[in-house]
């Protein structure tokens, strides 16, 4: 199959209208999209990703008005979207338009991506565009065009070139359809910010589906029950102390990679690591440079934006173990911790 790789929003919107599959960037990660009005096209997305059929897709909209035409928004939903959209917030709402994919659910996950060009593209398709993250099911989501092309050229009809993802982890998912609003997937918009609007926000265990919260036997967020975000390498979530210790001894730097904030005062892992933080930052910026198996970050936001791309580099280099320092407590930690906990679960 020929893949049209282009920044021409009109051409790529035509593809969606023809029932084809197009990958596009959002501010979080790349999405692999099809018309929410075409079951056949949406099912092709599942096939291409190898995604389990019981895990529904997020519908991407250009505006709050378009969401309101097909879903019951309510005052709360509107307030949340006005505050956090366009941006990395997904709401689960009751459907008004029952013909939208997936037809068997009476709820729809909705979100408005941040990039104006992407919203323009969605508008031109007639919208909405249903899209899970663009990755093979179970693997980390993709945040770099080069990785998207490597995995999906020849398998999808189009790839929209626009601003690359900057947040780096998937959107925060909040359900407004249960008895209490529920945080189904942590992300860059954090529970503290949400609680200002949703004081009774509940937190279902992210590793289990909750029977109490299930709707007609459909787990509240089916995606939470699958292993996710994991590279081939074993991921280890380490405290700062463990992280520094692992740099000092005990791990073969040829088979190990590190991502985190800290460096030991004295590096003794041989000649793989540079001597100072400055050297790491300079050398570590490019991919496949000498110190690619060490990514030094300075904020949680930078950590999130680099994490998945780093996983990809590590797998390409056949790294066996990736040691990830826990995020800094406070803002930006919730989403990263959730992804690292999931990625580090034993296979
Ligand atoms: O940042 C993001 O959210 C990215 C970009 C492309 O928008 N998308 C993404 O999609 O991460 P995906 O499919 O990887 O994750 C969607 C999550 C899954 O956990 C799924 O179970 C949940 O949203 N979900 C979708 N529809 C739902 C529904 N009707 N009820 C409950 N959970 C739903
Ligand atoms: Mg995903």
UniProtKB/TrEMBL annotation:
Database matches in InterPro entries: DHBP_synth_RibB-like_a/b_dom, Sua5-like_dom, Sua5/YwlC_C, Sua5_C, T(6)A37_SUA5, TC-AMP_synthase_SUA5
PANTHER family: SUA5, THREONYLCARBAMOYL-AMP SYNTHASE
GO CC list: cytoplasm
Domain YrdC-like: 6-189
Any GO BP: regulation of translational fidelity
Family stated for the protein in its record: Belongs to the SUA5 family.
Function in brief: Required for the formation of a threonylcarbamoyl group on adenosine at position 37 (t(6)A37) in tRNAs that read codons beginning with adenine.
Gene Ontology molecular function, alphabetical: ATP binding; double-stranded RNA binding; L-threonylcarbamoyladenylate synthase; tRNA binding
Main location: cytoplasm
Classification via Pfam families: Sua5_C (PF03481), Sua5_yciO_yrdC (PF01300)
Record's subcellular location: Cytoplasm
Gene source species: Leptospira meyeri
UniProt-recorded name of the protein: Threonylcarbamoyl-AMP synthase
Chemical reaction(s) catalysed: L-threonine + hydrogencarbonate + ATP = L-threonylcarbamoyladenylate + diphosphate + H2O
